[in-house]
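Summary for the funding panel

The consortium committed to producing paired sequence-structure records for every protein in the target list. Below we show the first two records in order, beginning with the earlier of the two.
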Amino acid sequence: MMLVIGLLPGPGWANSASDSSESGMAVIVAQESSVTRINRDDLALIFKAKKRYWDDGLRIQAVNLPAAHPLRRAFSAQILGSNPEELDDYWRDMYFHGVRPPYVFASEEAVIRFVSSTPGAIGYVSSCATDHRVRVVMRLESGVPCQR
């Protein structure tokens, strides 16, 4: 079961002056979040729904891009050690235990809008897509050119 949510790019979607990396990926939280950094192990636990709460008790809401998106594929390979299709069986099993996979958003702008306005949310986008609405808590190499 996958819910894909899409938003069209809106004002403020362009790159902030703080990051001009052309192929990096940024793991993001809301600017107001108490989270300032995250490590790879915790990030993997979050995106496999094995870590569900931040240290301050706030429920974590992880969000993905669609399975075919190059950033999702790079993120899954680097953090989860597999591609999105290989995780299908995992999520089917988790679903029958009452655990749902992360929401899927159709665009990087949709991820930024959700993360910036949802307490506890975490997602990933191209480094060049970040702006004042979000805080970068980890940077990853993606090998995927930035799409502005």
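The next record, for a separate protein in the list, is shown here:
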Amino acid sequence: MSTSTWLSLATQTLNRLGLTDACRVAILGIGNEINGDDAVGSIVARELMQSVCGASGADFHNQRLIIPAGPVPENFTGKLRNFHPDLVIVIDAAQLDTTPGQVVWVPWYETVGMSASTHSLPISMFAKYLSAELGCEVFLIGIQAGNNEIGEELSIPVATAANEVVQGLVDLLFPQV
């Protein structure tokens, strides 16, 4: 699935859900920073924060929340609960059995059985909890990992995909930037 495909699906989803600029959207980047491509979710979240807040100094905290959650996203459920999101977008490395850097957009309930990252709690369980507990929509941006070796940097295809996801989310959720 190309970047334009995931972005098109994300746009269709937001339109279908009636999510506007006034809706509260949380972006949760998951990943272990020392495990190569597994770090992609956290890296996307940090780069998105830099793109949105760093350049303009704008504060989108009323309607948008960006969390680089690292390998333990469960530690941020309180912050998400206090934010009261209408939508949570989880970004994570995934085992999709495709080429490294492939990006997908899927609702949480389609993540059952999907292998993602190196954290212990399956993404489907975490997303199901968020959906039930917070009463919000939950979607995953999964990026096919190539190399999850300890001490490695992001592989080139995954780094390219990360940059495309950051730009796509800026265009979709932060059009004023």
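Regarding this second record: The domain at 3-13+27-173 is CATH 3.40.50.1450 (Rossmann fold). The first strand starts at residue 25 and ends at 30.
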